[in-house]
User: Fold this.
Amino acid sequence: MPDAPGLELIAQEVNTRHDGAVIGTSYDRREATLLVGPGSAHDVLRYLKEAPGQEYHSLVSLHAADYLPEEPRFAVHYELLNMPRVERLRVKCLIEEPPAGELPQLRTVTDLFPTAEFHEREVYDFFGIVFDGHPDLRRILLPEDYEGFPQRRDFPVGGDPVIFTNTEDEMPGWTH
Amino acid sequence: MATPTDDRIADTTRTVEEMGRDAVARTEAQVIGTSPIEQTALEREEELFTVNMGPHHPATHGVLRLLVSLEGEVVRDLKPVMGYVHTGIEKSCEQHSYWKVIPFVERMDYLSYYFNAEAFCGAVERLLELEIPPRAKWLRTMHLELNRISSHLVGLGTTALDLGAISMFWYCFRERDKILDLMEMSSGQRMHTRYFQVGGVIEDIPLGFEEKVRAFTDEMPERINQYAALLDRNEIFLQRTKGTGMVSRERLLELGVTGPLLRAAGEPWDLRKVEPYLAYDEVEFDIPVGTTGDNYDRYKVRLQEMRESVRIVEQCLDGLPEGPWIADDRKVVLPPRHELGTSMEALIHHFKLVTEGYRVPPGESYYPIESPRGELGCFVVADGSAKPSRVHMREPSFVNLQALRDMCIDGYVADMICNLAMLDPILGGIDR
Assistant:
């Protein structure tokens, strides 16, 4: 992990190359986080991966969270790792809730990190965040015809009817 | 086994025009997906044949469906389809207080339940800034390593079973059962033990446990030698595993593969060494590393890891410090049972912890550990209430599965079975 001053140095360095890309930093319980906006996440990740002295070549994990009722509502977290230095750095991309009926958009990082393919499909599946440029953005764990994005905080629990052979006639939209 | 020879692979030198429209249309219709990870050079003369392997297939180690494009017996494209055992565990975790989440996460990767519990408890302990007592660290280390052996035993037994060596399966499960007996002794359950608690472990190990574990660790190295004697020079096993499923180290790193698969390809990356947690910086062990990264190396790495785990368990027994096995923080940890009858304060704490649970200060934590399959990371978002606002598991099986296509392309169907078995995916972990 970079320490708190190290994190500020990284943030400064990124901001000199991409003006205003890093909108904040957070150093909490020995975990370092860069806060970025959705427009600059890809640039920041590319810089952190390729710039000499940074070289965070591994994207260990990519996950999202819904911070309802906070604003901005969604965040996608990129857990970066520099293997030779054993340093972890989290890039947290804050995404505003789009107007009703639209899905939040974010640029894919599969061109930088091929491992992101499954992760981004999972985030799309559960949060409905669309990754522009993802080669194969489909639901991954839920059925293809599933409606809604169940990991959102406003998605109710226990709302799905279970289909049994003796109840299938009562199911909406169910035909033989 | 020889790789597919030239007469099997159709002539790729001819252009699309020379092959004719019909051939192109037929083959393109059978391309699976459009992703670069899934793209295949399709200028083949022969017709591709797409079949489903699974979801119900004994060799898929769970409910995994593979869409496979075959040219004769050679795999030209492959796409895993999963989600058949998705049960919404991550969503369920958000509805329960922290201490009730532990049984949920244990059921994700159902062969390495101690690891799931450790990942979650570690993340919550980091959020609480709670230090666990030394005895708890050593007890956790010992149980994790016992669990690693049992998980590798299942992997090895089922792999050998897929390759036709059914006796290996029984031998491996015999030893695994002894480990489950040990876990039953220390925690009361054989699987999904809920032994790890936030703050330590639920109970001290019982009398006689140490002798039982010593008997096991005395016996196990000899058993591992017997497995090796059964498989190491077995002609069928060698033909199926040597030189198959090779993927370069660089490609594996790109795909985010961790664990024994990565180490078999020559990358000595083990979180127990590079980012020691619990008591791993106080025990001695080596990291086995392969050279070529074929299936035989993967088998050898797992076998050697079991030997190293036995060493760690022995050292844990020798070095186990005396003292409390759970932290003495009454706001998080249940008070001892005997205090409830005499102390009003203990009774209040007990009541509050059981009904509401403890509150965790707001924050986010990603806590990675080395599970039998690679990096298992638990990401927890706390919002200050008694329930986590988000729990996410970075499951090594889920990420490693992306490498299956690279392993299988241009190999035989039989090699695909072997590759999948050596990948050792746990569908409960993938689907969650």
